[in-house]
């Protein structure tokens, strides 16, 4: 480690950070506008690079050093802002800018007013540590529990500890080393910073990619009007449930629902009102269903509900609760007919269940609607 020259380390890392910034910038231009924070994440390596360049310039002045610190602080500030935007959290930009101005004032004071290298190290390290801690809290509360977020959390945590150690050692060390001295301790701190910058850029890229993937998965599996699963997705889940029940026998039921006289709702109040009724219908059903139950839109105003671990009797009781929820007095409430069927064991199939649920639904319609029949 001691033979590694800090300058070479910074140059190497900056080159990689530049590439990451370019990729993030490309993603900002190309990715769906629903993914926020990419612009700030793309800018952050660029700002760090300007800071690092100012450190490296031969014969750098104190002003350049002061600006270099500004670059480092602004880079971490941009990363933090990017995380807030990405997670759709309110971003206190003014407060951050105010804190940044105060920090730069303090660094100016410890450069020209009462010059102190230790004080500058403490100010910069404490500011970055505070930002890291804040970002960690935000990610913990609002981020996913998936690998990209974990990578960023791990990076921030490790760097936070290193910063605290750096502050502690700067305050207690008798002999102060300049940042660019090629001692093993300084090389370690610079290496940690460089690795943090790189890993955070990679983490940002992975978080954005992960978000795009889950948004596309959601789009591919859901109906945009009602947010219910689409036909293909609900049928695939039905098949999965049957496969599971074949391995570990347990009951499951299907429910076919069809809104009553929906054509009249459209004809009397307009198609848009009809759409709102459908969205309210799906929303109301979700409020009644368990977390493991699945609601899907089977066709126009026909819905399918998969009820794992539920026999026909419990499904019929649930159908009653659904119809009650849809008669709460809300202006978009509607009446619904329901056909219920339970899995009959190994000889049964999803197609067979759908046919029975459909026949039961037909029976409910034939008997006067607004009721449940079991098939
Ligand atoms: N607004 C809206 N209407 C839809 C949508 N999908 C299907 N529909 C309408 O739903 C209506 C279904 O009408 P029908 O099949 O005659 O059924 P119904 O009027 O509900 O009569 P019953 O089912 O016998 O009670 C049609 O007018 C379709 O145009 C949609 O996404 N939005």
Automatic annotation (TrEMBL):
It is an enzyme of class 2 (transferase). Residues 250-375 form the GGDEF domain. GO terms for biological process: cell adhesion involved in single-species biofilm formation; negative regulation of bacterial-type flagellum-dependent cell motility. The chain crosses the membrane at residues 6-28, 40-57, 63-87, 94-112, 118-139, 151-168, 188-208. Keywords: Membrane, Transmembrane, Transmembrane helix. The keyword Membrane applies. PROSITE patterns: GGDEF. SMART domains: GGDEF. One of its GO terms (molecular function) is diguanylate cyclase activity. InterPro entries: Diguanylate_Cyclase (IPR050469), GGDEF_dom (IPR000160), Nucleotide_cyclase (IPR029787), Rev_trsase/Diguanyl_cyclase (IPR043128). GO terms for cellular component: plasma membrane. The keyword Membrane applies. It catalyses: 2 GTP = 3',3'-c-di-GMP + 2 diphosphate. Its EC number is 2.7.7.65. It comes from the Bacteria. Pfam families: GGDEF. NCBIfam families: GGDEF. This is diguanylate cyclase. It comes from Pulveribacter suum.
């Amino acid at each position: 480690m001691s033979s590694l020259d800090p300058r070479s380390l910074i140059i190497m890392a900056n080159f990689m950070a530049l590439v990451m910034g370019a990729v993030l910038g490309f993603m900002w231009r190309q990715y769906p506008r629903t993914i926020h924070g990419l612009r700030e994440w793309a800018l952050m390596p660029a700002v760090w690079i300007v800071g690092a360049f100012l450190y490296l310039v031969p014969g750098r002045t104190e002003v350049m050093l002061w600006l270099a610190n500004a670059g480092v602080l602004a880079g971490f500030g941009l990363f933090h802002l990017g995380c807030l935007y990405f997670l759709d959290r309110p971003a206190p930009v003014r407060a951050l800018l105010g804190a940044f101005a105060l920090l730069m004032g303090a660094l100016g004071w410890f450069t020209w007013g009462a010059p102190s290298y230790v004080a500058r190290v403490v100010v910069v390290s404490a500011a970055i540590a505070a930002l890291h801690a804040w970002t960690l809290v935000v990610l913990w509360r609002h981020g996913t529990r998936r690998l990209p977020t974990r990578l960023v959390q791990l990076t921030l945590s490790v760097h936070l500890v290193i910063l605290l150690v750096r502050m502690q050692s700067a305050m207690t060390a008798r002999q102060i080393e300049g940042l660019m001295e090629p001692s093993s301790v300084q090389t370690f701190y610079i290496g940690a910073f460089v690795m943090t910058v790189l890993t955070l850029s990679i983490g940002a890229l992975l978080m954005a990619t992960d978000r795009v993937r889950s948004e596309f998965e959601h789009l591919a599996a859901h109906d945009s009007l009602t947010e219910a699963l689409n036909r293909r997705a609900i049928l695939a889940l039905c098949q999965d449930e049957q496969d599971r029940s074949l391995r570990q026998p347990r009951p499951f039921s299907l429910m076919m629902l069809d809104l009553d006289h929906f054509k009249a709702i459209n004809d009397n109040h307009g198609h848009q009102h009809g759409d709102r009724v459908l969205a309210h219908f799906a929303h109301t059903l979700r409020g009644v269903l368990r977390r493991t139950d699945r609601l899907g839109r089977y066709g126009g105003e026909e819905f399918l509900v998969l009820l794992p671990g539920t026999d026909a009797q419990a499904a019929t009781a649930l159908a009653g609760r659904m119809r009650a929820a849809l008669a709460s007095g809300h202006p978009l409430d509607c009446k619904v007919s329901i056909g219920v069927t339970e899995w009959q064991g190994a000889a049964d199939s999803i197609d067979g269940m759908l046919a029975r649920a459909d026949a039961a639904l037909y029976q409910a319609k034939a008997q006067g609607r607004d009721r449940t029949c079991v098939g």
